[in-house]
Amino acid sequence: MSWEALVAAGLAIEKVELAPLTTYKLGGPAELFVDVDDRSVLAAVGEALQADPRPVLVLGRGSNLLIADSGFPGVVIR
User: Fold this and answer.
1) For labelling alongside 43, which of 10, 58, 62, 78 has CA 20 to 30 A away?
2) Which among 25, 36, 35 is positioned nearest to 67, based on CA atoms?
């Protein structure tokens, strides 16, 4: 599955602000954001990464995490 298909299906969202997702409330947007709630979504993200590799940040609860004001130039998976 491509990134465009993931965005069209509503599984990936472009330009999501990351500051509200961190305890410090700092940082810019993610290029792409995926909230994984089941294995099929994670599998689709894996397929997209194989076809079009991008930097990946796995975001947990966002504690003790600083994101640059310019954001993250890749895929944030939560």
Assistant:
1) 62
2) 25
d(CA 24, CA 40): 31
- Written as one letter, the residue type at 22 is T
Contact 44, 6 (CB under 8 A): yes
Q: Kindly report, residue by residue over 38-47, the tens digit of the pLDDT.
A: 999 999 999 9
pLDDT in tens, 1-20: 899 999 999 999 999 999 99
For residue 14, the cross-strand partners are: 32
CA–CA dist 13, 22 (Å, integer): 18
Instruction: Give 50's contacts (C-beta < 8 A, 6+ positions apart).
Output: none
What is the rounded CA–CA span in Å between residue 72 and residue 41?
A: 21
